[in-house]
Specification:
Number of helices of chain A: 10
Shape of chain A: elongated
CATH superfamily of the largest domain in chain A: Translin, domain 1
GO molecular function (chains A, B, C, D): RNA binding; sequence-specific DNA binding; single-stranded DNA binding
Order of helices and strands of chain A: HHHHHHHHHH
Helix content of chain A: 55-70%
Radius of gyration of chain A: 27 Å
Subcellular location (chains A, B, C, D): Cytoplasm; Nucleus
Organism (chains A, B, C, D): Lotus japonicus
InterPro entries (chains A, B, C, D): Translin, Translin_C, Translin_fam, Translin_N, Translin_sf
CATH topology of the largest domain in chain A: Methane Monooxygenase Hydroxylase, Chain G, domain 1
CATH class of the largest domain in chain A: Mainly Alpha
Structural class of chain A: mainly alpha
Oligomer: homotetramer
Number of strands of chain A: 0
GO biological process, one term (chains A, B, C, D): RNA metabolic process
Chain lengths: 243, 243, 243, 243
């Protein structure tokens, strides 16, 4: 392998040396990627414990009507989340174009975050928190770090899973009209999802589950109507039965 | 390998002899451990058949209101259990520091024991049998042999799994208020568990199942309320239909 | 939800309309992403059939000494591959920052490509085709579309899997020295990989398999040496039997 | 639940309060156990990287005769390991009787440690490192923290797995007598293991694998003998064939 001409110039590296040099580079790069992953994981675990606190507050809506105080307590955590996503965005900002390389590391937690934000928003307004507004609440409106649409949609499905239980408890507590409102919302949401051409994947499976939420809420609304418990004049339902 | 100088001193053992001697020791120790396991297994199988007797008695609460006689019959077995755990403690007492070595051999049966004790206690008092009280009932308050907290908590989860069926049957039998009482108990229990930072293991999985128990009991309570069957007259329920 | 004051201003959209509008956007974006995936899949399937052609040519090295003609035939496909990767790069170039979003769609095929390129290079030179050189051969040296290091390393592991069979067949054909050369190469490669701190994932699993390749080649080299078949006359081998 | 006599004494805690208090205790205990596990895991990961360094050195015995220098390099890490096990013992020493509770957390790494120690010892002396000597090397001779016998035996099985490859490479390098020595050692070891009454578990499965190591070494010894390659006068084997 030494220079054929026997000149004084340095011999080229042997294959073994060249191999080792190559793998030194790989080692450095794999370690850099491992360190980055560690940093991401640290922030994500903080996001996760923040959502646990928010969820514990929001769970109380199953025991009573959602009071402004209860919502305020959960909402106070949104800025904490925003700070964490800001940290994530900074970390990823050092590695342009690698958002989707590490996306799997915060995906599931972000879906939970969306489910909480959309539930809170629905409790306050009765409508769906839009994708843009969710992004803004989390400060995810940069060009490099945004809220993946599929994650947003999975989060909305998770939020839908919470609604049947909410309706059952609210009706139990005497808020009969709640079933009508939730049914309207879920019916529209389900119809909107049906427009999407979903591939055969996780999102599709989650959406398939929404059908059961809708069915359960329909049954509660049926119970309320058949017993003439709906409070307001809009509903004419039970007349046929009672007449 | 014999002494090079041909002296009178005994030759050191050959590697083969030394190996055999070693393995004789291992054989003795593995057999001792095997015998110990056999003894534990024998007692545990008796614990298991005692819990089967208790469970058979307790199952009758699904068919009628829990009478004192029914509970007495199950309670009479507690002292049998205490005797068995005493035997276990004695066996393990001969092997200090090895409680957790063999723990897996009585773990699952002890979780069942806890589920039965806590169910009986709840039927009598409406509250959760505390860990210390469960230990005392089983005579497990020595320093060497106690009731592992995770086993206690898994047992409590198993007890929770029994409650939806109990509520359904009690309401069927006309005890409408039962659903409210169980719902209160389970809601508190679920909230208390949520405070724990559970690792992603068996206990966490069991706790995740408690959510379904809670949901089911909420639905029974909902049925009772919406039909105006709760005793306190709050609701007006089915009058439209029945009138 | 319409303006309460009945003014002339346009009514804000109802929640249902707003929901539909949102989902129209999602629909468009999911379809765009689906179309992109289709385009990628089309190119990848062409890469896949090109590698099948190359592999069919290279397989012939197991039947005879690798002739220049045989290698030329496989090498002639490299430019075809380069063209395909160029197409992929163009498609992805329209969607900056999304390389890793769709990476899974060409990953496995690219690992196969690397295994073929490194095998050809080894047959010609006896050394490992470096990452940079592999990139250059495929025209993957742009800033946006490059050869992922882990894919390169997995491809190298696949190439290693081919070597035991190659050695067996070459020795059978009388090229006894081949086992020594492959053993040297694989020993160095295995040692270099051991320096990497691999996470417990796909690459690690593939690397673990390299140990068996090494062991198998060692056994072939052993057979050659013990029979005195190696060219350099060191060994005296089978004389007792043959004499 | 308030005092029946209506006295001024403080009311007993409500069931909910009492439940919360209980779970506060559980939370603290689970967290303590979680923290302990973290500390153990930290030390164990250091043990693991030390064994990786040792293994990298020892692997070189496959490429050449084991020189004293090569063994010295690996042996220099034993004191590092001893220090780590000392840390483990200190951590567990704070929690008497809980060795086996956390045993699973260092089990697998300790089996690897034993495989390395016994391999080094065999390379130096040709005999099996005894259990007591292994304990002493690791400073594991305290009453509370010792080397579990089953872990020791599994480690010995792992060491046996390394021997066929070693024999193949040594014979290739011309050390024909190596096969006889390893065969003697493995035959004795296998016979000793056969004396043990192993339950149907992990250790039994590992021991079952030793049969293949023995078979492989027998085949190498056969190759050496049948070709008359064994160097010393002891072996009379081939006479029947050659005569």
């Amino acid at each position: 392998m030494a220079g054929v001409d026997g000149s004084l110039s340095a011999a080229p590296p042997s294959p073994t040396q060249s191999l080792e040099k190559q793998f030194d580079v790989f080692k450095a790069q794999l370690e850099e990627s491992g360190t980055l992953r560690e940093r991401i994981r640290h922030v994500v675990s903080e996001i996760e414990s923040t959502t646990r606190v928010m969820y514990a507050s929001l769970l109380l809506v199953h025991q009573s009507r959602p009071t402004p105080e209860l919502l305020e307590k959960a909402k106070s955590q949104i800025d904490v989340l925003k700070g964490k996503y800001n940290q994530l965005a900074e970390i990823l900002g050092e590695h342009p174009g690698q958002y989707y390389r590490y996306h799997g590391d915060w995906r599931s937690e972000t879906q939970t975050v969306v489910s909480l934000l959309t539930l809170m928003h629905w409790l306050e307004t009765g409508s769906l928190l839009e994708h843009n507004d969710a992004q803004e609440k989390l400060g995810l409106n940069g060009p490099e770090f945004s809220l993946d649409i599929e994650d947003y949609l999975v989060g909305v499905c998770f939020m839908s899973n919470e609604l049947p239980r909410y309706v059952v408890n609210q009706v139990t507590a005497g808020d009969y009209d709640c079933s009508r409102k939730v049914l309207k919302f879920l019916t529209d949401l389900h119809a909107a999802f049906r427009m999407l051409n979903l591939r055969n994947d996780f999102l599709r499976k989650k959406f398939d589950g929404m059908k059961y939420d809708l069915r359960k809420v329909e049954e509660v609304y049926y119970d309320v109507k058949i017993r003439g418990l709906s409070s307001n004049g809009e509903s004419v339902g039970d007349q046929g039965i009672e007449g």
